[in-house]
Write a structure and sequence with these properties.
Strand content: 15-25%
CATH class of one domain: Alpha Beta
Number of helices: 12
GO biological process, one term: methylation
Bound molecules: S-adenosylmethionine
Shape: globular
CATH superfamily of one domain: Vaccinia Virus protein VP39
Protein name: Demethylmacrocin O-methyltransferase
Strand order of the largest sheet: 3-2-1-4-5-7-6
InterPro entries: SAM-dependent_MTases_sf
Keywords: Methyltransferase, Transferase
Distance between the termini: 77 Å
GO molecular function: demethylmacrocin O-methyltransferase activity
Amino acid sequence: MKIKTLAGKFFPDSLLISLGSNNNGRRFGFEGELNVKQDIVSKYGFDGELLDLFVENRGPAVHKWHHYIPIYDRYFSKFRGKKVRFLEIGVSDGGSLQMWRKYFGEDAVIFGVDIDPRCGNVNGISGQVRIGSQDDPKFLEAVVEEMGGVDAILDDGSHRMNHIRSSLEILFPKLADGGIYMIEDLHTAYWRRFGGGYRSKANFFNYVSDLVEDMHHWYHMHKIKHPAISDSCSSIHIHDSIVILEKAKNYKPTHSVIGVQG
Ligand SMILES: C[S@@+](CC[C@H](N)C(=O)[O-])C[C@H]1O[C@@H](n2cnc3c(N)ncnc32)[C@H](O)[C@@H]1O
């Protein structure tokens, strides 16, 4: 009997889920009656080209949660057909780099980074691949320099809490104004195998909560906790398992009364 099956026999589901057991993936595997495209269209009302690029992929594997597809399009579509400098953390088989190349177009500068040297095999196919760790400041800085700056970042790397935070703190200051920083698979924030846990201090959503407080520092006067991010983070979006930070100059808020007061 496999270890996973044995674990399922002796430990309650709640424990296996909180640990981040590999069985979690299976719990959410798509078993609907519709095909993948119909499922995404019917649930999320999204029928854009990115959906076709995903479902019609016959190249290296791309593994995505269905609800991510419209979210990607919502935040990344402004860069399509432009000379966007796009960096993906986590290359694996190179399937997503291929999808992004088709989505953003030939003018895009697409780089992927991965700790696994085997990912070097897909270097130069849909984008440039550099080998190193997402928590290594010198490595990431050198990659961004080679890219000539960065406009959009997608963190689909280790999904470990400490790595997500390190990459964000290294890369967000390097992001261009108007840039997008997206982190996916944040269900791992609730799984101990990834350094997270429900209500645990290291859960990345606690960090996001700090950013929300920083954004509103004008109104409570406590110290900004993460100035490297908060000084230029203009909005924070939370979706199921995805966080998006937009970068723009922040101004002290101000208000006016215009018109005749009663
Ligand atoms: C989920 S896969 C990426 C999948 C790819 N983005 C796709 O959609 O096809 C995660 C990748 O992160 C890489 N990874 C794990 N730890 C890392 C680290 N510390 N730095 C960079 N990459 C890492 C793994 O080697 C793996 O290839």
